[in-house]
Input
Amino acid sequence: MSFLPAAGYWANAARLVPEGQVTVESVRSVIAEMPGGGTEVQLTIGAATAETITPAINAARIVKVETEGGAGTDDLKYIAVTEVPDGALLILRCTNPSHVVTVKHAAGGTGQINLLDSVDAVLDDTAKRLVLQRNGSSWEEVGRFGFRGQKRRVILATGSFTLLPGDSGALIVNLGAAGDITVTLPAAAAGLEFEFCTEVALKIKALAVGDDTISDGSSTGGAAGNVESTAAIGNRIRLTALNTVKWRAVDKEGSWSLA
Output
């Protein structure tokens, strides 16, 4: 790990030339490790590192993250703090938009990443950048750039599956489905939002979990309830989480029923 010398280091007349050489090298390393201090580096998530990347000494902290084995998707849960001083900044983006990296919020343990609004960050475009700062044994999000103005994510739901917080904002469409499907919502967290649309004459059911409820107008379904479309083309509903236990239908077309 590289550190700047303490204030007043050079004012000490007892300093020797060899000490100065070591100190200058340390200063060079600090500059090289700053965002913009060197060429962008690529770090790969690996099974052996438990969904972790490890920034290296003497390397710029502008990082392209690659999935393990070039997989289509991968999770990044930890960033090692071994060679990064407290307070240092790190800028992340994906290496390839076809290799989607989901930066997970608060996985727990040393090197965990605490993200704004407790929402995972999906790096699926090289223009998207996530800025983090080391705070003790974890990382705190400073900001996101390039996430707005991107194409909206469309998920073609051909079968039942579970959404993740990082999928927030997506449009879920049953185009290509061979039968009715159930899409399980993540645990509610204020600001999460999903929209569902039927493009084939089959049902889509959005299912809440735990104690979460779904409200539509003046009606509210039960805990871990659902809202389901009829088997017709053109049904659409947008669900927004108002807090940690409540989903609200804020916009809809066609016919939907609560349970």
In short: The mean pLDDT is 89. DSSP finds one helix and 23 strands in the chain.
